[in-house]
Amino acid sequence: MTSGIATNVRLKGISKSFLGVPVLQGVDLELRGGEVHALMGENGAGKSTLLKVLAGVHRPDGGTIEVDGAEVSFAGPTDAQRAGIAIIHQEFTLLPHRSVAENVYLGREPVRGVQVDRRRMVADTRELLDWLGEDGIDPTDAVSSLSVAQRQVVEIVKALSTDARVLGMDEPTAALADHEVELLYDLVRRLRERGIAILYVSHRMREVFDLSDRITVLKDGRFVTCAPTGELTSEDLVRHMVGRDLGEYYPDRAAPDDLGPVRLALRGAGNDRVRELDIEVRAGEIVGLAGLQGSGRSAVARAVFGVEPFTRGVVEVDGVAQRVTRPRTAVRLGIALVTEDRKGDGLALRQSVRDNTLLVRRAALRGARSRAKSDVKALLDMVTVVARGEHQEVRFLSGGNQQKVVLAKWLAVEPKVLVVDEPTRGIDVGAKRAVHELLRDLARRGVAVLMISSELPELIGMSDRILVMHDGAPAGELPAGASEEAVMALATGHRAGEAA
Amino acid sequence: MTWRPRLAEGTAPVLVVLLLLLVGLAIVGPAYDEPSGYLALLKRAAPLVVLAIGQYFVIVSGGFDLSVGALVTAGVVIAARLINGSESATVWVILLVLGFGVLVGLVNGLVTTKLLVPSFIVTLGMLLVLDGAIFLWTGGAPRGALSAGFRMFGRGAVDVPVLGKVPWSVLILLAVLAAAVLFMRGGTGRALVAAGDNEAAVRLSGGRVDRLRLLAFVLSGLLAAIAAILLGGFASVSAQVGDGLEFRAITAVVLGGVLLGGGRGSVVAAAAGALSLEALFTLLNLLGVSGALESAVQGVIIIAAVAYASLGSGVRLRLWPKQRNPVRPAQPESS
Q1: CA-to-CA distance for A271 and A261, rounded, in angstroms?
Q2: N vs C: which end of chain B shows fewer Cβ within 10 Å?
Q3: What's the CATH code, domain A256-499?
Q4: Is the predicted pLDDT of residue B117 greater than 90, yes or no?
Q5: Is the dihedral of CA B294, B298, B299, B304 positive or negative?
Q6: Does residue B167 carry a pLDDT above 70?
Q7: Whole-angstrom distance, CA of residue A168 vs CA of residue A52
């Protein structure tokens, strides 16, 4: 059972690299029992990695971890658990068809003789639920009958049952409906009152200010600041989270007379993930779609492409209203989507460069155009793919070259509207630049480009206009070259919060 | 630019195996001193090769077709019953048998793609349904007889300039193989393999994955019907004529280096796998190994071929398992 002693954890100078890429560089973090400590930063700032170091999933390359003043080294998650540290992940790890008690003690069921001691399991689970003040959940309920918020409680009980005194919570409100968020706040406050140390990872401004006692900000894998919540304003936070140079090179933006007619228009479009979308993208224009993870950026892309179609409003392509209910329709209307998951749904990895390049043409526009060999070669030259040959399997290519093949596959059908979701994720600097130039080049040829990116410098550097999403709806539009602070303010709901 | 033969990945080993087996046959069997011996082998192998080509379409797109053996039986039994020795019925019965194959493939494909039942289960169910229906219909002892015209495809031969007498079944086999190769080189064939590799990518490229899968099952059914017609030529009419052929076809495809689960492998290699299997059984027979061992040998082959495919995913022949890299990058020991 949980004891009443508060646990303090101190991480000092934590560094971690993956394949030579530094993700964390000398990060400090201190957690105290009875305190909610918020960890903030942009996507890719290193929050999740730090959380995993704390959980013993990643072993740091440098730095020390102290639990109650004693230095420890975690060989794996079990060691961290033994030290009283548990992480509540975004994706729940519960088995839906088993009871609450069975889930809490999964894999370490109390036994009596050779049998699982169900009575004790249920009693212990009930005791923990009572201790938390959660009387709405019965240990014998099946998890599938619980709400998302209740499942989160079960996750927390599960952690507490291992005598956890330090809880890391990764974006705990991401999966919750609005009315459930308050319940979570209550729960977190109760945990704090009971002496638990909580590391609260979030990029939602309001939550952090509502809940936390202290805030640590990371940027690009480095420690920026740690201060009591009361001493920080949301402007301070935004400045700490961004505030870097825009020193990279991007191709010239479109001049006003480069822009042609509106190619893609969304009018009042929405579905159950996004709403109130009024977006116009002109021929020759790159419109950036900004927002935090979960803000609905990708949902817009998927809806435009007919994967999870809009259920409300109108989509117009070249001024004609269209019903795009599946990708095939979108492709035939001249809409292309470069998804954020290149390997998952962008490429058939075991097929050749050639087969992937021709995939759209063959799959969607069978027999439509020529199959000349020179065609494929021209396409690959255009996107500057480096491969051993057209017949090399794409899985052997670098990330950058794979992404170029994805682009080539779309260029093969000469799209009118190109939606790109994280077009440069996980590719090297040279390939990034090539992709940027290619996108701008396509825009110059009259393609309307809608670009989603978590990398603010890229988004700002590339876009002729920036639309910012927050919580499934547009939060505002910014002109070319807007500051990162301005984008982040809209994305975190900061400005919207002030207006309300 | 020099022309180099380009083999699909996983094709080379089966060709080596086939060559070794043919050399073995030449050494052991006096009948294999002349081309006619090999032609006879090809003729015997024709039904299995045709079945393996059909099975290839299904496997490479990510499924299984276990119903083809029962479908072959059904084809032969139905044909015998309806023709009943009457020459004039031959043509329409052949069309009917082909149509029946297409229909069974259509049902397999529709249940798999629309009701989302795994193809392994759908076609297993189809196998049982067909077996049961044949038994019910024939009472276990099929009646009727095939006409000479029907049997000609399996046992007859035709004069071909230069080559001399070539069995009809070999010509049919070559025609099927040529058509399959052309199909697989075309856009639809490539999309079929891509669907077996990454369904989501094909769908998000505007492809109709369900239709591709359905097509694979229909082709498999059609080719099973053709195999039934070939087999009817030299096998006796019985309710067991197609027993176990589905597993033999799957073994052949796997031996051809086609990846279970789809996405990789060539149709020529699958056909070579079937031919190798037939050559192996012939060789074992010549060596005096009991025919009873056939299924055991087949079992060993299927496991070995899949193990080989999963261990050595490269083209190189690996004699030992490749070094497995730890999933996480190496980390320095912390003090």
Answers
A1: 26
A2: N
A3: 3.40.50.300
A4: yes
A5: positive
A6: yes
A7: 9
